[in-house]
C-alpha cells in the first residue's frame, strides 16, 4: 500500500507539458549582430540563469487567457529586447556575438499543468530543487545558446495559481538586464504602458570593444558525460531561504557599525556590507573552519556606474564582475563584525574603473572561461540584489507571492539576495550549502537574529 500511496503523491505533484510554441517580436527587425564583450564571455560555462515567480490565481480569466496575454505582451517587449529572440553566433574570426534575424524561432514558451501543486507549497523556505520541473533548461550551459533559444519561459497552471519559470542565457545578460526586461514585459501586460518605457541600451562595445577569440573546447569537454564520472562523489547540498525582517536587517547593520575598525576615514558600513559579513561569519562557523583556514568572499558587482565612461542603468548585457577577497577564518570570527565588513568594503571600493580595466586586460591576454564553482576555497559568493524590484513584476493579476532562483549555478556557498517579501528594508537570503553545515546554520540563533 505504501508504494501505491507514494505513486499517487508523485502523480499529484507531477508537471505535465501540454504545449510548446515560440514568440517573436511583433514587428520585423531585420538582421542584427551584436558582439559579446569581455564582460559577457567569462559566463559561457555557467548555466542558464533561472528564476521562478509564482502568482495566486485571482479568478479573473482562465489560464489559457493569461498565457495569451503574456504572449501578446512578449511580442511587444521583444520589439526592443529582440536579442533575447536570437541565438549565439560567431563571426569569421570565431568571435562570439548575439545574432538576430526575423526567421529565427524567437523565445520558447512552454505550457504545463501541475494541478496537484499549490502556491503555498512553493512559498516554503526549502530550496527549489524539488520543483525543478517548473523551470526550463536545468543543467544547460550558456554555450548551448549557439543552437537553443536565449530565453525559455515555462508557464505552469497550479492548483490555485500560476508558476512562471524563466531560463535566461547568462552570457547575454545579467541580473539588472533580466529585471529590466521582466518589469518592461509586466508593464505592457498590465496596461501601465503600451510599449517599453525605458528601451535597452544595446551597444555593448561602448562598455568594452576588444575582440576576443576563445578556445571553447575545454568547455565542451567538461560538459561531457565522462567528466561527471570522475573525481569523488559529490557532497549532498541543501538550499534554504532565510528571511530577514526590516528590524533584523537594521540590527545587523547597527552591530556592524557599533565597533568601528581602527581605520582612518572608513565610511559607515552599508546594509549590503553589514549583511554580507553577517552571512560570511556564520557560514564559516557552520563549516567548522579552523582559525588558519582561508575563506573567500565573492560578490558579483554591477559595474555600470564604475566603468569610465559610466554606462546607463538600461545597458543590456553583462556589466558585472566578480570581486574576490580572502581572509583567515580566525581573523573573521575572533574579531567584531566590523573587521570582516571592512575587508569587504575595501574590496568593493577599490574595484574602480582602473581596476576593472586592468582585470579586463589581464583576462583578454589569457582568457579563462569560468565554471560557476570557481569562486574559491570555503567561499561565500553573492549574486542578485535586494535592489531589484522583483515584487513589482505584476502582469495584471497581482504581485508575485514569491520569487526564487532555480537549481542552476548553485554550489556550496552560493547566496542569492532578494527584496524581502514583507517589504521595506527586509531581505530574503537564499543559501546553498553542504547539508551538515546547513543543519548547523539553521540552528544558529545569532545568525537567525533570534537572540
TrEMBL record:
<dbReference type="InterPro" id="IPR023213">
    <property type="entry name" value="CAT-like_dom_sf"/>
</dbReference>
<comment type="similarity">
    <text>Belongs to the plant acyltransferase family.</text>
</comment>
<protein>
    <recommendedName>
        <fullName>BAHD acyltransferase DCR</fullName>
    </recommendedName>
</protein>
<dbReference type="InterPro" id="IPR051283">
    <property type="entry name" value="Sec_Metabolite_Acyltrans"/>
</dbReference>
<keyword id="KW-0012">Acyltransferase</keyword>
<dbReference type="GO" id="GO:0016746">
    <property type="term" value="F:acyltransferase activity"/>
</dbReference>
<keyword id="KW-0808">Transferase</keyword>
<dbReference type="Pfam" id="PF02458">
    <property type="entry name" value="Transferase"/>
</dbReference>
Amino acid at each position: 500500500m505504501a508504494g501505491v500511496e507514494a505513486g499517487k503523491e508523485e502523480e499529484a505533484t507531477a508537471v505535465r507539458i501540454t504545449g510548446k510554441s515560440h514568440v517573436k517580436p511583433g514587428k520585423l527587425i531585420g538582421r542584427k549582430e551584436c558582439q559579446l564583450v569581455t564582460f559577457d564571455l567569462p559566463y559561457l560555462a555557467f548555466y542558464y540563469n533561472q528564476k521562478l515567480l509564482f502568482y495566486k490565481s485571482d479568478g479573473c480569466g482562465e489560464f489559457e487567457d493569461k498565457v495569451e496575454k503574456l504572449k501578446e505582451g512578449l511580442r511587444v517587449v521583444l520589439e526592443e529586447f529582440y536579442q533575447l529572440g536570437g541565438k549565439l553566433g560567431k563571426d569569421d574570426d570565431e568571435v562570439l556575438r548575439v545574432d538576430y534575424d526575423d526567421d529565427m524561432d524567437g523565445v520558447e514558451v512552454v505550457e504545463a499543468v501541475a494541478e496537484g501543486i499549490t502556491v503555498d507549497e512553493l512559498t516554503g523556505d526549502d530550496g527549489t530543487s524539488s520543483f525543478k520541473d517548473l523551470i526550463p533548461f536545468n543543467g544547460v550551459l550558456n554555450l548551448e545558446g549557439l543552437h537553443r533559444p536565449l530565453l525559455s519561459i515555462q508557464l505552469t497552471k497550479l492548483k490555485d495559481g500560476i508558476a512562471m519559470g524563466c531560463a535566461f542565457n547568462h552570457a547575454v545578460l545579467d541580473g539588472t538586464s533580466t529585471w529590466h526586461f521582466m518589469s518592461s514585459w509586466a508593464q505592457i501586460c498590465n496596461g501601465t504602458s503600451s510599449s517599453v518605457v525605458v528601451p535597452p541600451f544595446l551597444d555593448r562595445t561602448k562598455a568594452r570593444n576588444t575582440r576576443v577569440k576563445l578556445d571553447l573546447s575545454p568547455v565542451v569537454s567538461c560538459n561531457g558525460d565522462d567528466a561527471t564520472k570522475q573525481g569523488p562523489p559529490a557532497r549532498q547540498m541543501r538550499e534554504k531561504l532565510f528571511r530577514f525582517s526590516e528590524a533584523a536587517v537594521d540590527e545587523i547593520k547597527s552591530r556592524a557599525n557599533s565597533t568601528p575598525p581602527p581605520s582612518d576615514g572608513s565610511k559607515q558600513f552599508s546594509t549590503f556590507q553589514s549583511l554580507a559579513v553577517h552571512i560570511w561569519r556564520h557560514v564559516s562557523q557552520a563549516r567548522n573552519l579552523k582559525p588558519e583556514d582561508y575563506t573567500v568572499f565573492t560578490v558579483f558587482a554591477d559595474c555600470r556606474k564604475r566603468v569610465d565612461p559610466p554606462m546607463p542603468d538600461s545597458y543590456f548585457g553583462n556589466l558585472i564582475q566578480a570581486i574576490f577577497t580572502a581572509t583567515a577564518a580566525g581573523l573573521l570570527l575572533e574579531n567584531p563584525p566590523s573587521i570582516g565588513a571592512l575587508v569587504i568594503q575595501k574590496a568593493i571600493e577599490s574595484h574602480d574603473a582602473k581596476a576593472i580595466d586592468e582585470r579586463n586586460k589581464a583576462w583578454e591576454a589569457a582568457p579563462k572561461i569560468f565554471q560557476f564553482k570557481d569562486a574559491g576555497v570555503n567561499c561565500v559568493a553573492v549574486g542578485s540584489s535586494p535592489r531589484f524590484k522583483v515584487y513589482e513584476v505584476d502582469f495584471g493579476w497581482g504581485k508575485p507571492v514569491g520569487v526564487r532562483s532555480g537549481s542552476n549555478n548553485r554550489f556550496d556557498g552560493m547566496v542569492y539576495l532578494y527584496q524581502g517579501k514583507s517589504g521595506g528594508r527586509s531581505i530574503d537570503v537564499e543559501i546553498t550549502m553542504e547539508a551538515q553545515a546547513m543543519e548547523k546554520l539553521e540552528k544558529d540563533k545569532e545568525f537567525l537574529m533570534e537572540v
